[in-house]
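Supplementary Methods, section 5.1.

A reviewer requested that the exact input to the structure prediction be made available. We therefore reproduce it here, unchanged from the version used in the analyses.
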Amino acid sequence: LDGCPWVWYPENSGVEAPPGVRYFRHRIDLPADSSVTEAKIRLTADNEFRLYLHGQEIASSDTWQVPLTVDLREQLRAGPNLLAIAATNAPSLWPIRPMERASTSSREMR
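The structure derived from this sequence is encoded cell-by-cell as follows.
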C-alpha cells in the first residue's frame, strides 16, 4: 500500500485518532450492458474492519498489519453497487513509556 493515504477522520492532524467506529461508503454504478472482468479491493484498518457490498458483509479483518485483497467481480451487478466499510479504532495503550512496559512484563513473568 505504498503511496496510499491513511484515511481516518477529517480532523486528522498527525495525532492519534480517537477510538470508535468510522463508516465509509462508495457507490459504483455499472451500465446494464457492462461485463466486469476484474474488480478487487485491497484494504486494511487499524484495528479492524468489516466490508459490505449491497448491505451484506463480505469480508472482515482484525489484522491491520496485513492488507486483505477481496475479489468483488462475482458480486458486482448492473446498476448501483454500494460498497461500505465499518472501521474500528480500539483504544490505545499508549502513551506507556518503554520502561513501564518492560517492568510490567517482568512482573507478569515472575
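The mean pLDDT is 82. These observations are discussed further in the main text.
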